[in-house]
User: Fold this.
Amino acid sequence: MLSRVFSAANTGFDGRLVEIECDITGGLPGITIVGLPNKAIDEAKERVRSALRNTRLTLPSKRITLNLAPADLPKDGTAYDVAMAVAILLASEQIDVGNTGESMFVGELALDGSIRPVAGVLGYVETAKTHGFTSVFVPQACAKEARLIDGISIYPVTHIRDVYRHLTGEVPLPASPALGSLPASGVYEMSDFAHVYGQHTAKRALEIAAAGGHNVLLSGPPGSGKTMLAKSMLSILPPPTREETIAITKMHSLRGQHGYDIITERPFRDPHHTTSDIALIGGGQQAKPGEISLAHHGILFLDELPEFNRNVLEVMRQPLEDNSITVSRASHSSVYPADFMLVATRNPCPCGYLDDEQRECSCSLAAIERYRKKISGPLLDRIDMIVPLQRVEHDKLIHHTGSESSQAIAERVAAARARQQERAGYPNASLSNRDIKQFAHLDEDTAAFMEKAMRTLDLSARGYMRVLKTARTIADLEAADRLNTDHISEALQYRETLGQQY
Ligand SMILES: Nc1ncnc2c1ncn2[C@@H]1O[C@H](COP(=O)(O)OP(=O)(O)O)[C@@H](O)[C@H]1O
Ligand SMILES: [Mg+2]
Assistant:
């Protein structure tokens, strides 16, 4: 008899349905898998065979052919094991067809028949829901992430025997309900703004950046607190919404980097400067998401930006513009969202002490030039705010009595974000040029002021739009509907260093 069972493939951020057909015919006993299987899938034969045998289910001594369709879709991993076992049970009439039609099966089989967790379960469940399935059988260990999706029944299972008994009606399993409220976001382990002494301008800039989701570059000598400030950024961002939590968890689940738990905090990714372009943007054999996608809805922190390989930085230009990335491999390409806030740092020169009030810089002009050129103009163009920092004197650090807490800043940031959400549905950093025309309209005087500044600073068209977005956020922080010259001139301040240096 011929049977059909469904599973899915996480081919990118959006998955695709995979149909598993099983045909049992007379002939030499054995299992053959067709439909572009790779090694992990081919080995499923052995796992399925042992799992059924050790569960005292019957593996027919006949010729068993499993076909994974569509054939052009490269299939990988161990997540199809359970679906293949169910297909065999159906084709050999050990279970009834009527019971499986609207279900999807996901999970890896151990030789004793127990079901092991697999990466990307949240993605499989979303695909099942999109295609109108009513239930998904998932490994028990992955049930939590699966339950983030509502409107579909989740059956967490630990053994193929449980699946069999449920499908025969012998021992029905209870479906797990969708998670109503999400677990509260944990306290941020990273530092609090209260621990950073002084640096008022930088803090103000970071508050604006957080409020609008703007990309920032902190520029200052070593020891000025750049790394410290960047690492405090998460503490002033609002917690992710449910939708964002699902996207964040799904992305980490695709990489198997979430410990099968729900991620309730925004990600903070800080790849080292020796990182490769594939690690950063994704790709490789399986076209997996890279750091920029793992930073989706959170922060991508690139400490010491000029130390990164130049071609590594250049590949970021397109995703910084599109908020998504297409990673290609020979047979197919995958699209992953990459809507992150870039927080980067740099020293003003290779030794770090150019313009320092206390120490002499030892770099040659040529060395400084080379160092600066490592961040290309087009990349800098995509950074909304450049924030210069100076070192705080040591005695001030010692006698420092504490400044405003992250919590207080976070409240203002949340209020400004709420305004943007209501107005456009997303933070100002994501405003399109058309949005800017509509939401960041300038009256005559302000427009004249802006025009003059544009000429003085030699702003590019992209730079112009970025200034308007930043200005929009500054206005949102004071709950102002219209942009005025104060908002514009503060926004321009964060591009001034750019004009001087390039
Ligand atoms: N403004 C500041 N307030 C409190 N501590 C500071 C400040 N600036 C620097 N420090 C201290 O100096 C150390 C080095 O700062 P860091 O953030 O690594 O500097 P940078 O990245 O600019 O080289 C920090 O760990 C912190 O202890
Ligand atoms: Mg540092």
